[in-house]
Amino acid sequence: MPLYHTDDQAMLADTVTGFMADEGGIKQQLRHFRDINCQDGFGHGLWKQFAEMGLTGMLASEADGGLAMGHVEAGIVLKEIGRNLTPSPFLTTSVMGVTALSDGSDDLRGRWLPGVLAGDSVLAVAVDEGPKHRPERIAARAEKAGNGFRLSGNKAFVVQGASADAIIVAARTSGSDSDVDGITLFAVPKDAAGISHENLRLVDSAMASNIRFDNVELDGDCVIGDVDGGRALLNKVLNAGRIGAAAELTGVGQGSFDVTTAYLKTRKQFGKLIGEFQALQHRAAHCYSELEIAAAAVIKAQQLLDGGSEKAELMVSVAKAKAALACNLSVREGVQMHGGVGMTDEYDIGLYMKRDRSLAEFMGDQYYHAERVAQLSGY
Q: Model pTM?
């Protein structure tokens, strides 16, 4: 399968690239909402524009009013979100949340998807319970209570957790904390009694929340998929989030590379443009090559996911690890080549470095996924 976009995907990329450059730029979105201390961390007006373009329902089925596109298409949007550092709930809502709800009942999809497709609702996904990504261990418990469940436990660093209209929660309904089976996913309304938040502003100015569920009463309609049999659906949601984060990382790395090469072409030292010095040209060429390799790994993983390949999970971890390495190289070299001004808030390159740090941790860092590649390869 060729590692480039089809004609339709290239047209989508052209449209999204122009839209994000016009509406999602750093000054009007990231800097604006950071400087006004916005507690949602993103602009609802832009989210509404996402909906008007059909982007919020890219992964939803046509029967649910969506576009029934795949991860390649969602990755096109995420790369431009990364390139422009646009604060948006697209990854948690339209990629991970919609993927989870795709296995929900007609009533559940009908309750939450119309708001997502209209740009009126936001979803969050709560899986991890500590500072690092460890979905293998889930201690939050949901016990049978009447016709529903009673949910108790903690979830950590839930992106958009306090802003979400519904939180997709992975909880244990049977077994011990590290068992593979016994997991169930729930769509928990934000106004359910017993939920409390500790709001967090992350290093990249995004908003997250440590969430406490204290005997939260849920009716049976909140269950997504099968009771006790939610591990496969959870893995599906995680893979969607991981490849989405990898796509956004390639965008962050590309955006960092773009502003750095532009700086090399304007900054003079010793009477010459610094981009004329061979040492800096070699470093820029190294970044370019690594970003191209990462982009190829990402699109391969997206194609395998969309095709339902059994090799998709392995390739997703390859892509997440490689994208993290390439993006980190790009932002570190970018700050270095900017010199001292790269550490100031006046220049955007430092914002790319902050986003890289936050996004690299989301859904597992490079070390987690390198180990996962080894395990899935039989080592």
A: 0.96
